[in-house]
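Progress against Task 2.4 (sequence-to-structure conversion) is shown through the following example record, which the project officer requested during the mid-term review.
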Amino acid sequence: QVQLVESGGGLVQAGGSVRLSCAASGDPMCLAAMEWYRQAPGKERDLVAAITSDGSTYYADSVKGRFTVSRDNAKNTVFLQMNSLNPEDTAVYYCGAGGGYGCPDEYWGQGTQVTVSS
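Structure tokens generated for the chain above:
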């Protein structure tokens, strides 16, 4: 069973920064690759960033240069550092896992709200 718990969201002004955390537990095969998604009201869930256990990363074009994904394998925690935020970044941010070799199912947490004000 995979459990993902996001934290760190809140209200931030445009141009500011926030760091999200995802505490993960479960089958190690499911946690080899971790992802961050976001979903704005009335919109579909979009992939924002991803990171593997060996440190390989992926970023959506809209966040490249502004967001940084990292992980602490010893603590089984994934982070998303978000800088230079703008109102378009406002969304519920979800931590995701699985969907790869050895763990075909996908999982994500309940999300944490990030609101960016002008």
